[in-house]
Amino acid sequence: xxxxIDRSKCTDCGLCVxxxxxxxxxxxxxxxxxxxxxxxxxxxxxxKAVCPAEAIAHTGLESSSFKRIEGKPSYPELxxxxxARRSRREFTPEKLSEEDxxxxxxxxxxxxxxxxxxxxxxxxxxxxxxxxxxxxxxGEQTLQLAQKLASPFWRPxxxxxxGRQLKEFGPLLPLLKPMAExxxxxxxxxxxxxxxxxxxxxxxxxxxxxxDAVYCGAxxxxxxxxxxxxxxxLGFLTEPVNRDRKLAKLxxxxxxxxxxxSLCVGHPAFPYSQGVRRPAPDAVRV
Length: 286
Prior knowledge:
There is one protein chain. The chain is of the alpha+beta class. Helices cover 39% and strands 13% of the residues. It is built from 10 helices and 8 strands. The strands form 3 sheets. A 4-stranded antiparallel β-sheet has the order 5-6-8-7, with helices on both faces. Strands 1-4 form a two-stranded antiparallel sheet. β2 and β3 form a beta hairpin. The radius of gyration is 24 Å and the shape is elongated. The two termini are 43 Å apart.
């Protein structure tokens, strides 16, 4: 890996030094130079992105990946998108195009990432047989759980080991059995008959893996809204795939990886006419 500075362009402004003083230094003569060889580099691209003269060359970074920032959405424009986004569970049968899927993944790739490891993997499920298998498999698991929760033998044991989680899940517990039964009848309450599910996975040992995947998933949700699509986080999909080898094999989850978050995406069956602005959260100011 090599970092070099085009002296015919460089103005010695020193922004690269302020951004990364491991790999750039300003000499006593005021001239900026790059470390040879470079020290630890996370390939974040900040040095190239901050250079107003476009004078930095980095063999580890594609120059074509960088482009001038021409403008950004205003805060009201951003809020309009955020307020318009809804968790969509009603979809048309229309499949997603490859262009739409690529656009969603491109948006995910722009999310912040711990140490710039780019460690999040994606499983895009569009095969109707696999989608049906996921829904039915999770429906069966959920029905078994609902039956155990109603059992005088199993319930005390479940409360003993998982009481805190159940308390958080409390309002939804009565819905488990009807949700599972409807799903097994073909009225999908797991994937909501969406034509596409996206599972985001990382190594279980990745210290930032869970956060990284969620950030990428959030970008997909917003990109879907901007593309005129609908999306929803699938809380009932993530853990069952991690716990059930059959489901993991069904979606081809790579060995040594865990699903961190899951989404379904499709064409919305109808539009929403109003956005919703949530109340401002409470915050402790220190």
